[in-house]
Amino acid sequence: MKITTLLLFASLITSLAVAHPTSYKGATGLMSYNTPEMNEILLTYSLQHNFAVAAFYLRDSNSEFYVPRLNYLVKRWNNESSQGNLYLSAGAGVEKYNSEKYGVRLAELVADWESREYYIYLDHIYLNRDNELNPNLVQKNYNHTKFRVGTAPFLADYEDLNIWLIMQAEKHLDEKQIELTQFLRFYVKNSLWEVGAGFNGNWAFNYMIHF
Amino acid sequence: MKVLIVTLSLVVSSIAFAGQELKVGVKGMVCAFCAQGIEKSFKKQPEIEKIKVSLENKYVLLTFKDGKSMPNEKIAAMLKDAGYDATFEGQ
Q1: Structure pTM?
Q2: Inter-chain contact A187–B38, Cβ cutoff 8 Å?
Q3: Rounded to whole angstroms, how far apart are CA atoms A82 and A114?
Q4: Do the beta carbons of residue B59 and residue B26 sit within 8 Å?
Q5: Cα separations (Å) of A163 from A93, A184, A192, B36?
Q6: Cα separation of A55 and A77, whole Å?
Q7: Among B36, B41, B60, B71, which one is least packed by beta carbons within 10 Å?
Q8: Which of A62, A38, A59 is nearest to A135 (CA)?
Q9: Confidence of residue A12 (pLDDT cuts 50, 70, 90)
Q10: Which of B27, B32, B83 lies at the smallest CB-CB distance from A79?
Q11: Which residues of B touch A27 (CB under 8 A)?
Q12: Does residue A19 come out as left (phi exceeding 0), alpha (psi in the -120 to 50 range) or beta?
């Protein structure tokens, strides 16, 4: 309960739509993605620029998932004016539902490419669950896919406030409908915020910090 | 005339004590948020007086403390740890 409260509180004051599964060597990263239905928190520590240990929390449909995981940067393309990344993550933990605990396994794939003007991002998370009792999460295989495209309305430099316009399409579980959310992203120094408005009227708030 | 001498001596002394600068190209550095690790790790180095990061020009400008320098290999390794590839002028 205490851990849940702390994590939920952290998700409110911090909040992940742009995942950085690994960062620079020695970096700690805190990321969170929040909508009225879901809270997601990822705390990472990068042992190398391409490898991080992490703790993952997800609340969805009355189930809570606590999953220690490893994040690996499979490939990075450092180009003259752009960068592309491919990350894979894996972990195993517990799903908490009605005070009971069940096993859960996680796999995640993140791919992104960005220049100073454009950004494309794909994230697919997969959970293999032992719990069959949650009527709102009936599938043993939990799938959540996000696809984003973004553009910067102006080119900001290192010290400036950077602003991006982002459109996100996401498919959650086996729902047939694809949810669209428009985001405004702001970042300066080591802090990044996103505020989103879904076409279905939902809000979204995301936050990421490296320190 | 006195003013001229004082000005000249100030200019000469500032040149004499100015730290050596090195401009290093950085491939893949397109995001200010992601590049924070570069500044953070170089600032920890005893040889470094200051660092300027330019996304526009795709380089970092390192200013070394008086009489100090850093081998290119170390700079390249630090940039690698931050997730980037270094390019040096003339290479």
Answers
A1: 0.85
A2: no
A3: 6
A4: yes
A5: 36, 7, 10, 17
A6: 26
A7: B71
A8: A62
A9: very low
A10: B27
A11: 37
A12: beta
